[in-house]
Specification:
single chain, 500 residues, alpha/beta, Rossmann fold, 2 domains, 17 helices, 14 strands
Length: 500
């Protein structure tokens, strides 16, 4: 049985993406002066007159006392600003020290992450503190299709019963594609045309509409995972509107689809091997003294023979067990929980193995955004099987099961997917960015930061030797670098690596 305190600890990890912005303790790292950005005379998008005003309402939640809650209408399609609109929800927490106030800090997270719920959780737990809170207005905006901003209503799960993301014949592949299309249609029916406009440029224009409505000339942008690409897009469209830009746990959509997939599945497989090595020595590992990798293989085989029951969801197959590795290893503090969950699942209860689904992140919303924005890696059964051969060779134990594979297989047949583009061109006239990347994170491969940073002239990558997915919350060294950059405009010295 899963201990209540263990589940609470796992739920608290969802705060990491927000606390990473606001914990400001620890020693500083060597710094180098940032080169100033050259303002660009680039106009902001035209918007209808009624889209420029935020409708403020009293914040009802106690934890938002002193904050302002509101909604902003933006065009569903920015190329047709006079047509239908959708609503963005936002919360603004004013800087504690208004005399020393620098400006707004736009909070963004992964494509299924609600910035509003992260802010709520941070205020409830006391994680919101430090000089960034004192000197910046924290602006939590839920992107369209996420959280409180026109969330998808699909009326069904992401994957239908009996459907596999690893089809072994044409019949299973056809069932997968039909299920993907059925999901898209159900979400479109329940939500409306907004799901056809979830692309990066639209999200960037939405954020600039928020900036305009707040009456701010410039903003500081902080993006994590998928929203590092939104930040890159914003910097291309509106470089003069950025004061600073911090990109944490970067992704890079300029890489070929197969290369992006390969990087992520290798990161997951490496994470499992690192977990096994840790478990051999860690006193709090429930599998200490055992052959951890063999136990994992046995659990996958057990679930393939007979799916393992879990509360409030369908039983877990071997595919489901492999898929949980990436999510369970994002934060090292949760590794003891993963070890215990393996034992519990082997005993017949896979509940603890299922990733906690708290209010700050919605996996279905994340999947919908990925399907709407990511060019296909495969279109036919033969192409998907070729990719499967590659990922199984690179990751023989986890078999390639990952968020990236969910997109590669689970989005085939999704209508309106973009064709491959060339998003790797340099960002011109924007501030030099600060990139934060863990060396062994299972969700954002280490090399992504370096390839994305090449698109930002003068930028720096700050590495942290570790496994965590939100670097700053675990590293006082990195936290000090973020504070120094956002408050004083100084980047870390080239090659800086945080070892704490």
């Amino acid at each position: 049985m899963t201990r209540p305190e263990t589940r609470l600890r796992r739920r608290s990890l969802a705060l990491a993406a927000f606390v990473a912005l606001v914990v400001v303790t620890g020693a500083a790292v060597p710094m180098a002066r940032t080169a100033p950005a050259t303002p660009a005379a680039l106009a902001t998008p035209e918007a209808p007159s009624d889209a420029a005003m935020i409708r403020w309402t009293p914040c009802q939640a106690e934890e938002f006392a002193g904050s302002r809650c509101g909604t902003l209408s933006v065009p569903i399609d920015w190329s047709r600003p006079g047509d239908a609109t959708t609503e963005l929800s936002l919360v603004v927490r004013p800087a504690d020290d208004q005399e020393a106030r620098i400006g707004p800090l736009l909070l963004n997270n992964a494509s299924g992450g609600s910035a509003i719920e992260q802010l709520r959780l941070g205020l409830l737990t006391g994680g919101v503190r430090g000089s960034l809170v004192e000197r910046f207005d924290l602006v939590a905006v839920d992107p369209r299709g996420v959280g409180q901003s026109t969330p998808p209503r699909c009326g069904r799960p992401q994957r239908g019963a009996g459907v596999t993301y690893f089809p072994q014949d044409e019949r299973a592949f056809d069932a997968l594609v039909a299920d993907n299309r059925a999901l898209a249609e159900a979400c479109r029916r329940g939500t409306g045309a907004v799901l056809e406009h979830l692309d990066l440029e639209t999200s960037a224009r939405d954020l600039d509409a928020v900036r305009q409505a707040l009456g701010e000339r410039r903003v500081t942008f902080y993006g994590i995972l998928h929203t590092t690409l939104v930040g890159r897009t914003y910097a291309r469209l509106f470089p003069a509107r950025l004061r600073d830009i911090v990109l944490d746990s970067a992704l890079d959509d300029s890489l070929p689809a197969a290369q992006r997939l390969a990087s992520e599945v290798v990161a997951v497989e490496t994470g499992l091997n690192r977990f096994a090595a840790w478990c051999a020595e860690a006193p709090d590992c429930a599998l200490r003294g055992q052959d951890v990798l063999r136990r994992f293989d046995e659990l996958v085989a057990q679930a393939d023979r007979a799916p393992i029951p879990a509360r409030d969801r369908t039983p877990l197959t071997g595919e489901d067990v492999r898929r949980q590795v990436q999510e369970q290893l994002v934060f090292k503090i949760a590794w003891p929980d993963f070890a215990a969950a393996i034992e519990e699942a082997a005993a017949g209860d896979a509940t603890a193995l299922v990733t906690s689904r708290d209010e700050t992140f919605n996996p279905l919303q994340d999947h919908i955004v990925q399907c709407a924005t990511t060019p296909p890696a495969a279109r036919t059964f033969a192409e998907l099987k070729q990719l499967e051969r590659m990922v199984r060779q690179l990751a023989p134990r986890t078999g390639g099961a990952s968020r990236a594979w969910d997109t590669a297989a689970g989005c085939i047949g999704w209508p309106g997917r973009p064709d491959a583009a060339d998003p790797g061109r340099p960002v011109e006239d924007a501030p030099a960015a600060l990139f934060l990347q863990s060396t062994h994170n299972t969700v954002a491969a280490y090399e992504n930061a370096f390839s994305l940073a090449e698109q930002f002239p003068g930028s720096r990558v700050l590495s942290r030797d570790g496994d965590e997915g939100s670097l700053v919350v675990w590293s006082p060294c990195a936290t000090a670098a973020v504070e120094e950059y956002t408050a004083a405009g100084r980047l870390p010295a080239p090659g800086t690596i945080c070892l704490d």
